[in-house]
From TrEMBL:
Enzyme Commission code: 3.1.3.89
Name of the protein this chain belongs to: 5'-deoxynucleotidase
GO cellular component, one term: cytoplasm
Oligomeric form and interacting partners: Homodimer.
Phylogenetic lineage: Eukaryota, Viridiplantae, Streptophyta, Embryophyta, Tracheophyta
Length: 243
């Protein structure tokens, strides 16, 4: 494995040159975690944007499905940026995060008026656009409006790649509903998003002796559902006992 210099400045001009609508490349830094992930895209934008790939949209074929799934493989290999920035060893991927959110929806109690199956689908879709745009965090210097624009554009491309039709529209609608944060399902999945993050933070604190209090502080008082509040309290209680 080749050596990786800490805080090495890396310009990701190759991918951005393929996407004219995106902002100019920013100066980004690799952390020590990059040494364990030399092949991962450890930055705010994904490499080699698929927006430059041949458009096979509209055919609804088996080929379209495989193209879509191949693109989604980036979710398995792109680590969550927050952990990378804090030099967590072997940080979870975006897909890891979404998978456990899906499990949260699966094991949560039934709530009147909430479709649990829909919550599971929403959990595995909510960050799907990050296969193209990467994990954009507040420290990337991108506004919420710009982040939403980039993700919306990426989602449109992914739905076209899938071939359009019923399944593509379902994915798009689940993503839009999550972003709107108005339905009972969206509010619950938003809570799962925060819960998965603080549970992962607790686990990293236990495994690596790090202080990741900022993640707990950033979610404090922001849970919208009874399940979210109860689970957050349990996670906080376990953290207190550990200290």
């Amino acid at each position: 494995m080749r050596n990786v210099t800490l805080n090495r400045v890396v310009f990701f001009s190759k991918s951005l040159s393929l996407v004219p609508s995106l902002t100019p490349p920013q100066i980004l830094h690799r952390s020590a975690a990059a040494a364990s992930y030399p092949n991962r895209a450890i930055h705010c934008m994904a490499d080699d944007s698929p927006l430059s790939q041949p458009d096979r949209s509209g055919d609804g074929s088996v080929s379209s499905a495989i193209d879509f799934l191949t693109l989604c493989s980036r979710l398995k290999t792109t680590p969550r940026a927050g952990w990378v920035k804090r030099e967590v060893k072997n940080p979870e991927s975006i897909a890891d995060h979404m998978y456990r959110m899906g499990l949260m929806a699966l094991v949560s109690s039934d709530i009147p008026g909430v479709n649990r199956d829909k919550c599971m689908k929403m959990a595995i879709v909510h960050d799907i656009a990050e296969a193209i745009v990467g994990d954009i965090t507040p420290t990337c210097g991108v506004s919420k409006e710009e982040k939403n624009r980039r993700e919306s554009e990426a989602l449109q491309h992914m739905c076209k790649l899938l071939g359009g039709g019923e399944r593509a529209e379902e994915i798009a609608e689940l993503w839009r509903e999550y972003e709107a944060n108005e339905s009972p399902e969206a509010k619950l999945v938003k809570d799962f998003d925060k819960l998965e993050m603080i549970l992962q933070a607790l686990e990293y604190e236990q495994e690596e002796g790090k202080d990741l209090d900022e993640f707990f502080q950033s979610t404090a008082g922001k849970f919208q559902t009874d399940i979210g509040k109860a689970w957050a309290l349990e996670i906080a209680s376990r953290r207190t006992k550990r200290h």
